[in-house]
């Protein structure tokens, strides 16, 4: 696949980032520039060199933190390896980390930074040239595109659920954000149009005006969402697999914990049906859930639905100035400033197991890295299907794969358009399902659209807007085609989607296009390293809410998972929470936090048993 036609490809060269490499240390290539920067911590640099670091961390702090590591330069890591690419015991010691994180998606970065601020030495291995995974970015012709969604939850400055803000703050970063007045504008069958206003009362009165006979049901359903959200928001969020924390929370906030425990095995659709009877309103709630979980309300955990349906009004949706990619860039930079490392173009090919314990990671150029714990931010399908031997699939993972399937991937179109094609006051995010509710979950049935330049004009050249259009699509649709047929199919499918948007929302859209790039599920698989390009896990049948979702520990000693195939699932804020939980459990296992081995065993057994009930 050539880079230009592949959609999600080259980002801004790393050399354009505002990092300062060492003046007398010549990086061999772009990734080493960052890598060298990361290795400032090695301690063998002059004051002047260290001064070149644009870090907020003081020089003494850097030296203190890193006195254990006496690497001369970035290249020393390579030299510590013998010619076969495997390390000797002595070398292994010099390359030894507390944790290795495979992948720098938001899940991986949050886990890594949370551990690093506790004093752990973390190495992040990222196969691509920049951090962020599905929350990355790329630049073309003056446009800065978000790779994935531009809808940011958890990015406000209040409450306990602003996990993105908190993750950044932990490494001393604070980003400027632009409040979005409307989370999403739904354009639905039978001319139903609903704007989800930032102001809760405005949203409720708009919805109740459309369904006056259901006013009470609407208030009751969303009221329960608030009850759950308020319980969540009142707690300090950490690992549910860590008994000292979990029992402590039950002691401090018994009512809130019981509320959460009560709703943990429930789905939004069942609760909606208790209060709402109008089939069209129930279909609207399906659409609300679909954008959260890519499945309908009957399959969407109530806790997840509540989190999204309330945070959008509580903290609001806030867009980071400069694009979503800035979040991952800031976290990666923060990680390095904490004295940990991130290595790009490091494609993990296997997790090294010794005596049943995960002890290291091998990357595609043959190098091996060792650590006390290994955290995989690859999907569980990739972790247990590729990084570990498929045939050794643990029982727990078999159960996960029986309960959850890979959600389809996306066809995504990144476009630059002339600004005047958008009517005044166009909202930033849209969801379009034209004629038939039955098409909600059908591939290409519904269309997601983000126009981040409505909020941040700096992402496009003057007089232009960005349109990021995406729709569900499966990898099977794109396999077995010749190059020519593949390219032709991409153009054809994209044209149909653009036609639909032209008809429904923006007359003249086609002739306003100044830039267009189409990505398919194959593009997602290639650039995001996600099995089948999947968007994340999706329940195979009606789930028992979140009960069946695995947390971060795995049945392999020393191996943890983080990201959207862990509790609580898909979504940037969801994977940020998974990162927080993972870091807490790992920190306890590494001795950075209190731990009780007896309670640990009991709780992990109990949670494992509860999952079998799902
Ligand atoms: N598609 C969208 O619209 C979109 C957009 C933004 C965010 N999201 C959300 O982000 C969530 C995913 O976040 P996440 O943190 O779980 O994962 P992610 O897929 O975003 O990131 C995983 C990272 O791991 C890297 N990686 C994978 N295998 C690797 C290997 N073998 N060696 C080295 N690196 C490897 C990838 O390159 C990627 O950077 C999704 O659930 C989704 O909700 C989705
Ligand atoms: C442990 C046991 C058994 C009992 C203890 C009880 C207890 C204390 C439970 C506690 C539970 C907790 C703490 C749960 C926490 C859950 C959280 C924080 C869930 C968060 C979920 C967030 C989600 C699902 C966010 C999803 C966001 C998404 C997917 C947004 C998507 C947007 C798009 C895809 C784009 C839409 C785009 C357009 C253009 C419309």
Automatic annotation (TrEMBL):
The keyword Transit peptide applies. Its EC number is 5.2.1.13. One of its GO terms (biological process) is carotenoid biosynthetic process. Keywords: Carotenoid biosynthesis, Chloroplast, FAD, Flavoprotein, Isomerase, Membrane, NAD, NADP, Plastid, Transit peptide. It is found in: Plastid, Chloroplast membrane. Its main location: plastid. It is a peripheral membrane protein. Residues 106-586 form the Amine oxidase domain. It catalyses: 7,7',9,9'-tetra-cis-lycopene = all-trans-lycopene. It comes from the Eukaryota. Pathway: Carotenoid biosynthesis; lycopene biosynthesis. InterPro entries: Amino_oxidase, CrtISO, CrtISO-like, FAD/NAD-bd_sf. Signal peptide: none annotated. Its cofactor is FAD; NAD(+); NADP(+). GO terms for cellular component: chloroplast membrane. Belongs to the carotenoid/retinoid oxidoreductase family. CrtISO subfamily. PANTHER family: PROLYCOPENE ISOMERASE, CHLOROPLASTIC, PTHR46313. This is prolycopene isomerase.
């Amino acid at each position: 696949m050539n880079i230009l036609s592949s959609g999600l490809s080259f980002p801004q060269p790393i050399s354009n980032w505002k990092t300062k490499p060492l003046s007398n240390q010549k990086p061999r290539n772009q990734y080493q520039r960052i890598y060298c920067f990361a290795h400032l911590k090695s301690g063998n640099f002059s004051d002047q060199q260290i001064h070149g670091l644009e870090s907020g961390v003081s020089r003494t702090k850097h030296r203190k933190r890193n006195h254990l590591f006496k690497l001369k330069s970035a290249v020393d890591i390579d030299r510590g390896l013998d010619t076969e690419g495997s390390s000797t015991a002595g070398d292994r010691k010099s390359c030894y980390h507390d944790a290795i994180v495979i992948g720098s998606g938001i899940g991986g970065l949050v886990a890594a930074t949370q551990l690093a601020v506790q004093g752990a030495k973390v190495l992040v291995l990222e196969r691509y040239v920049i951090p962020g995974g599905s929350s990355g970015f790329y630049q073309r012709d003056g446009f800065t595109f978000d790779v994935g969604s531009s809808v940011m939850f958890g990015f406000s400055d209040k409450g306990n659920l602003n996990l993105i803000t908190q993750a950044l703050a932990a490494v001393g970063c604070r980003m400027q954000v632009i409040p979005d007045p409307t989370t999403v504008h739904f354009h639905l069958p039978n001319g139903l149009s609903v704007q989800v206003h930032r102001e809760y009362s405005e949203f409720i009165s708009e919805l109740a005006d459309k369904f006056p006979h259901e006013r009470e049901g609407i208030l009751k359903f969303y009221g329960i969402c608030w009850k759950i959200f308020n319980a969540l928001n009142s707690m300090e969020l950490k690992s549910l697999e860590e008994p000292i924390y979990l029992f402590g929370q039950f002691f401090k906030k018994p009512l809130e914990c019981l509320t959460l425990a009560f709703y943990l095995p429930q789905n939004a659709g069942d609760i909606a049906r208790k209060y709402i009877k109008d089939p069209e309103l129930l279909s609207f709630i399906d659409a609300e859930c679909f954008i959260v979980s890519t499945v309908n309300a009957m399959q969407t955990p109530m806790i997840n639905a509540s989190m999204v349906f309330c945070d959008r009004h509580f903290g609001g949706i806030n867009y980071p100035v400069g694009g979503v990619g800035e979040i991952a860039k800031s976290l990666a930079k923060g990680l390095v400033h904490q004295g940990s490392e991130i290595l790009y173009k490091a494609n993990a090919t296997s997790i090294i197991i010794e005596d049943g314990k995960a002890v290291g990671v091998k990357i595609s150029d043959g190098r091996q890295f060792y650590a006390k714990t290994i955290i995989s931010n690859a999907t569980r399908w990739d972790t247990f299907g590729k990084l570990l031997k498929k045939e050794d699939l643990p029982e727990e993972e078999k159960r996960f794969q029986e309960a959850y399937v890979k959600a389809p991937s996306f066809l995504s179109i990144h476009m630059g358009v002339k600004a005047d094609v958008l009517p005044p006051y166009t909202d930033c995010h849209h969801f379009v399902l034209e004629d038939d509710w039955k098409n909600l979950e059908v591939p290409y049935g519904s269309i997601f659209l983000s126009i981040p330049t409505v909020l941040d004009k700096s992402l496009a050249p003057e007089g232009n807007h960005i349109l990021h259009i995406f729709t569900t699509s499966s990898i099977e649709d794109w396999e077995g085609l010749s190059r020519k047929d593949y390219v032709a199919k991409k153009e054809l499918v994209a044209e149909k989607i653009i036609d639909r948007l032209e008809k429904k929302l923006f007359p003249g859209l086609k002739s306003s296009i100044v830039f267009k790039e189409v990505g398919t599920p194959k593009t997602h698989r290639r650039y995001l390293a996600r099995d089948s390009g999947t968007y994340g896990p999706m329940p195979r049948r009606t789930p028992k809410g979140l009960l069946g979702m695995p947390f971060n520990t795995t049945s392999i000693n020393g191996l943890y998972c983080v990201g959207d195939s862990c509790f609580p699932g898909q979504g940037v804020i969801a994977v940020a929470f998974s990162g927080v939980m993972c870091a807490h459990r790992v920190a306890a296992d590494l001795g950075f936090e209190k731990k009780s081995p007896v309670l640990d065993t009991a709780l992990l057994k109990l949670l494992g048993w509860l999952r079998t009930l799902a």
